[in-house]
Design brief:
The protein is built from seven helices and five strands, in the order E-H-E-H-H-E-H-E-H-H-E-H. It has a five-stranded parallel β-sheet with strand order 2-3-1-4-5, sandwiched between helices. The chain has a single domain, classed as Rossmann fold, CATH 3.40.50.300. It has 189 residues and is of the alpha/beta class. 26% of the residues are buried. The termini are close together.
Length: 189
Amino acid sequence: MKNVLIIGVLRSGKSTLARMLCKKYNLNYIPQDAMVDAFEEIFPKCGVCHDNKGKEPFAPFLFSYIKHLVKGRWDYGARSAPDSRPFVIEGCHVGVASACKSVDRSKWKIVALGYPSLTPDQALRGIRENDAAHEWTREVKDVELRGWLADAIKESQRHRSECAKLKIEFIDTSFDRRKKFAAFVKKYK
């Protein structure tokens, strides 16, 4: 079984897909946001933060971390055998091209998510209809979120194009997201 790197735009379903894979196959799960949160809080001078435009400043650090994590992990509960379960890492802090250059694709499945077929108003409506109590988007006014979504739609279109060129799977989450995720989870193994 390969490790999985899920990349994509805001609220495209990265965490949902990661949780589905972990539940079905008992995989290790690391959200990129958790790593960024930790570095913002503990090591602010590193410059790793959620506000990085283009996200690429985080990519070299992330892939260096992943390489060491995968190479040297151990099941500390047993203190003996390595934990050989694959990882699922998801987030929006790395672009498609960086991911392709940085991971060994014989050991990693890369998938990108986005909603290139929606308008900002459709994306906003979908988010508002599905906002859970813990979602950060609940705190953002519609006018501001609509602008972010317009950017995310353009980024989704770029991701889709890049994925086609680089032979990376792209899941269009504009419509039938759960059905598409279920199909991906089923064929993952």
